[in-house]
Structure formats: structure tokens, C-alpha cells
């Protein structure tokens, strides 16, 4: 396992730039530069091209640490992990990989939704389509895009400079991910940059889940930092005789419950990540693991609800960092990788159908 922990300076940059990034609906350049310097965008670049090819636990730890300062920027780092992994799985040709990974720290974005069509022509493949919710697309160099080519589910590696960005990401939370729409209109892509999609491995699917859960756990941990600071201050429960938050047994209980929920989500995340790295997962495990992932996301949401109770209405002031963590977590924890009702459906089906 490759250990990663952001430099204190990097965490501080992400924290101070978070409000600016949210207002711009895209990550702050200062934050992206800091992640490049730290090697974050090379986490899933193959080692032979100068990257770390980090495992699931290292990825989860990195993204949760970053999410503690800025969940949106952590999310973009996670998207880069997913997109680079898909590129490696989709393009076995060494010359294509050398082109894609010439700069190991380059930012990738992408979409696994086959929202485009490819037509083979003598010069290559003509690609047209509209891919929604592509995180980090305004700052990425390469886009890995799912599409249908002659009826086959395929992936194309396309320079973002050849595509059009439509700024369609207007959300209550995770605004700084800049998850806008990428548009291709008859873009000519070299034939070797368009390949039939490789099968999705169980280990890969769980790695991708880590890229969603990591920032969510980080957001909950960041919110807890704000609450811990409140308990260390002279803040008191309003309309009470207490002189400090910690004097209230109810407040102490809510703090304990919130902390327990965040710790449990984190333990779940790392346990699944370690199982992935040990190749100790199979297709039969997926329904159970999806339930655990969804529960971890719900634990984080429940924890932040308790924190907001502790803070009171002032926690929703736009100048209060707690409300940003709340909004970011509310959006990110509803990613399909963390979908609770489909997880319950899958797990229930598995229980009924198992031998």
C-alpha cells in the first residue's frame, strides 16, 4: 500500500479556496496545482509511466483526507482515478498508453454512460454525443467517454480540447466539481483510441465506489472538525443555563453519536478497500458490499444531521462551513455507487436466490 496524506499546506489551500471554487462552479486553480505537486493525479497512473498505481485503501485514504478540506476537489481527484483505471483497462496497446500517460500528473475526466455514437471511417472514428455530469471537465486534458460503436459498448480517449463544454452543473452541493456537459460533434478520433469496453472487474467496481465514498467520509470528518472546534470554544447552547456546550449531557451524547457514525463509516470504507487490495472479493460478495457502502453514506448523512442540531440555525448561515459540508455530503452520498434502495434490492435478491 502506498500511504498518502496531503501536506498541511495543501489541505490549507483546499480549505481556503473552497468558497471561491464553489462560487465559480469549478475547482480553484490553486487547489489543482497543489494536488499535482502532491502527485494526487498520478495515484492511478501506471508505475511504468511514472505514477503510483495506488490500491483501493490508498485511494480511499487520500480522497477522505482531501475531502476533509474540500469534498468537491477530492471528488475530481477520484474521477481522475476512475478515468485512468478505465483507460488502462480499455487500451492495452503500449503506444496508446504512452500517449495518454506522457505526463503522469495530467488530469483525466470521463463518463461511463454510453451517451454517444461512433462511426468508423477510413481516417478513424467519428464521434458525436453529449455526456452529462463530467466532473472536472473544464480542467482535464483527456476525457474517457463511453459510447456505442457499431452496436458495441466502447470507450474512447478524446482530448478535451476537441470537445465543447456546456456549463450545465447548477447544484445545491458539490458545486465546485464543475460536473458540466461534454459535447462532441463529429469529432475524428484515431481508431486506436476507440476500443470495445473491457469487462468490469469486481475489484474495479469497488475501487470506483471508493472514489465516491472517500470524499463523503472526508466531508463528514470536516464537519466534525467544525463541531469539535465549537465544543472547544466558549459557545454555549442558546436559551440554556449552561456556560459551554460540553456542560450539556444532551450535547455530549449528540457529539458522541455523530463521532461514532463518522468513525463507523470510515471503518467500513477501509475494511472494503483492504479486501479489494487483498483480492478477497468476488461477484457473490457484491450485494452485501453494496449494502455496506450505502450504509456508510447514510451514516455520514445522519452524523451531519446531529451536528446541525448541535449548532442550531446558525449552522445554515452561508458563511458557516458546516452548511457547505452538509450540502456537499447530501449530493455526493446519493451517487449511484452509494444508492441505498438498489443496494437493499440487490441484497434481498441475493438472500432469496442463494443456494
Automatic annotation (TrEMBL):
GO molecular function: acyl-CoA dehydrogenase activity; flavin adenine dinucleotide binding; oxidoreductase activity, acting on paired donors, with incorporation or reduction of molecular oxygen, reduced flavin or flavoprotein as one donor, and incorporation of one atom of oxygen
GO BP term, example: fatty acid beta-oxidation using acyl-CoA dehydrogenase
Domain of life: Bacteria
Pfam families listed in its UniProt record: Acyl-CoA_dh_2
InterPro entries reported for this sequence: Acyl-CoA_dehydrogenase, Acyl-CoA_DH_C, Acyl-CoA_Oxase/DH_mid-dom_sf, AcylCo_DH-like_C, AcylCoA_DH/ox_N_sf, AcylCoA_DH/oxidase_NM_dom_sf
A GO cellular component entry from the record: cytoplasm
Residue span, Acyl-CoA dehydrogenase C-terminal domain: 214-339
UniProt entry keywords in alphabetical sequence: Oxidoreductase
PANTHER family reported in the protein's UniProt record: FLAVIN-DEPENDENT MONOOXYGENASE, OXYGENASE SUBUNIT HSAA, MEDIUM-CHAIN SPECIFIC ACYL-COA DEHYDROGENASE, MITOCHONDRIAL-RELATED
Protein name: Acyl-CoA dehydrogenase
Organism (species): Streptomyces brasiliensis
Amino acid at each position: 500500500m502506498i500511504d498518502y496524506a496531503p501536506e498541511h499546506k495543501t489541505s490549507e489551500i483546499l480549505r481556503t479556496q473552497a468558497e471561491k471554487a464553489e462560487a465559480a462552479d469549478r475547482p480553484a486553480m490553486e487547489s489543482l496545482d497543489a494536488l499535482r505537486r502532491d502527485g494526487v493525479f498520478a495515484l492511478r497512473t501506471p508505475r511504468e509511466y511514472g505514477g503510483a498505481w495506488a490500491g483501493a485503501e490508498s485511494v480511499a485514504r487520500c480522497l477522505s483526507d482531501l475531502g476533509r478540506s474540500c469534498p468537491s476537489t477530492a471528488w475530481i481527484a477520484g474521477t481522475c482515478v476512475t478515468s485512468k483505471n478505465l483507460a488502462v483497462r480499455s487500451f492495452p496497446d503500449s503506444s496508446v498508453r504512452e500517449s495518454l500517460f506522457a505526463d503522469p500528473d495530467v488530469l483525466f475526466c470521463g463518463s461511463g454512460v454510453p451517451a454517444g455514437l461512433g462511426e468508423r471511417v477510413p481516417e478513424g472514428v467519428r464521434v458525436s454525443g453529449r455526456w452529462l455530469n463530467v466532473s472536472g471537465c473544464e480542467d482535464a486534458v483527456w476525457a474517457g467517454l463511453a459510447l456505442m460503436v457499431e452496436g458495441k459498448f466502447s470507450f474512447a480517449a478524446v482530448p478535451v480540447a476537441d470537445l465543447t463544454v456546456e456549463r450545465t452543473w447548477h447544484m445545491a452541493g458539490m458545486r465546485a466539481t464543475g460536473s458540466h456537459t461534454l459535447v462532441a460533434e463529429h469529432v475524428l478520433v484515431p481508431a486506436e483510441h476507440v476500443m470495445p469496453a473491457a469487462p468490469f472487474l469486481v475489484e474495479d467496481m469497488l475501487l470506483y465506489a471508493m472514489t465516491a465514498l472517500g470524499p463523503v467520509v472526508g466531508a463528514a470528518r470536516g464537519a466534525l472538525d467544525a463541531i469539535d472546534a465549537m465544543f472547544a470554544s466558549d459557545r454555549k447552547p442558546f436559551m440554556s443555563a449552561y456556560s459551554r456546550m460540553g456542560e450539556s449531557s444532551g450535547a455530549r451524547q449528540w457529539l458522541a453519536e455523530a463521532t461514532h457514525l463518522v468513525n463507523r463509516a470510515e471503518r467500513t470504507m477501509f475494511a472494503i478497500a483492504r479486501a479489494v487490495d487483498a483480492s478477497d472479493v468476488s461477484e457473490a460478495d457484491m450485494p452485501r458490499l453494496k449494502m455496506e457502502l450505502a450504509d456508510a453514506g447514510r451514516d455520514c448523512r445522519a452524523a451531519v444531521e446531529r451536528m446541525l442540531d448541535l449548532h442550531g440555525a446558525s449552522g445554515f448561515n452561508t458563511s458557516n462551513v458546516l452548511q457547505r459540508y452538509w450540502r456537499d455530503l447530501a449530493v455526493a452520498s446519493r451517487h449511484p455507487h452509494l444508492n441505498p434502495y438498489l443496494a437493499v434490492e440487490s441484497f434481498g435478491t441475493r438472500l432469496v436466490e442463494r443456494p
